[in-house]
Automatic annotation (TrEMBL):
It comes from the Bacteria. SMART domains: AAA (SM00382). GO terms for cellular component: membrane protein complex; plasma membrane. Belongs to the ABC transporter superfamily. Macrolide exporter (TC 3.A.1.122) family. PANTHER family: BLL7988 PROTEIN (PTHR24220:SF686), IMPORT ATP-BINDING PROTEIN (PTHR24220). Keywords: ATP-binding, Cell inner membrane, Cell membrane, Membrane, Nucleotide-binding, Transport. This is ABC transporter.
Length: 243
């Protein structure tokens, strides 16, 4: 049976208001975001859907404080990130945000366990690397090197690394973009399980419209704006996604 939709009445973890982002390269300006307002709530799984170039990655980078908006505000709980120092933003990312990217960025000379331990060693109250890997179904692959793992398994190590610090936000940019449908579903299952068990507010960027059905809420981005939002009353399980 499909899990129940999360309530939007849960507390907002992150609130972005009227965010714009202009990239300037020489005399050329690209307005990547034109006034985007979004909220991410505790326990929620949100899918950001939009065509190539619509501004999804730009938005995710700003939500995760990897980049700053040209105008507008971003607030994490009671903290204003817009005017925070670089040091405060680094601390925010380190303590509260897990990132998952399309290419897994694992250290090839380290095992799965060691890749996760890189993060747990600098976190305040992390889970053990073994627990993080168990949560993504890789408890039996602790001592394998990335080259000994499939693409989907490597991405699950990247997810374990992202969640081991128990972040309040998990931001994923095309996490299944390099994967076939079977391994892509396994990655979505890992993200779904973490979201449901740990209550981590999770945002997933994708072009894959099939994936939108696992979300509690879908935010459609078009030409640097939120074109519309939809709430899924009955999200489906990742195993039911048709690619
Ligand atoms: N560093 C940059 N410098 C200049 N322009 C940029 C930069 N990054 C992105 N852009 C431009 O901003 C716009 C939005 O890009 P963004 O990567 O956010 O889109 P996207 O929706 O994530 O696309 P994709 O699905 O292809 O990854 C595009 O027109 C892109 O060319």
């Amino acid at each position: 049976m499909a899990p129940p939709a999360r309530s939007l009445s849960s507390a907002p973890v992150l609130v972005a208001k009227d965010v714009t982002r202009i990239y300037r390269t020489g005399s050329v300006e690209v307005q990547a975001l034109r006034g985007v307002s979004v909220e991410l709530h505790e326990g929620e799984m949100v899918v950001l859907l939009g065509a190539s170039g619509s501004g999804k990655s730009t938005l995710l980078n700003i939500l995760g404080a990897l980049d700053r908006p040209s105008s507008g505000t971003v607030q994490f709980r009671e903290h204003d990130l817009t005017h925070a120092s670089e040091r405060a933003l680094t601390q925010f990312r380190r303590e509260h945000v897990g990132f998952v990217f399309q290419f897994y960025n694992l250290m090839p000379a380290l095992t799965a366990r060691e890749n996760v331990a890189l993060v747990t060693e600098i976190s305040r109250a992390p889970m053990r690397p073994e627990e993080a890997l168990e949560r993504v179904g890789l408890g039996h692959r602790l001592d394998h090197f990335p080259a000994e793992l499939s693409g989907g398994e490597q991405q699950r190590v990247a997810i374990a690394r992202a969640i081991a610090k128990r972040p309040e936000l998990l931001l994923c940019d095309e996490p299944t973009g390099a994967l076939d449908s079977t391994t892509g579903v396994q990655v979505l299952e890992a993200l779904h399980q973490v979201n449901r068990e740990l209550g981590t507010a999770t945002a997933i960027i994708t072009h894959n419209v099939g994936i939108r059905r696992i979300a509690d809420r879908v935010i459609h981005i078009s030409d640097g704006l939120v074109a519309r939002e939809e709430v899924n009353e009955a999200p489906i399980l990742p195993a039911e996604v048709t690619w």
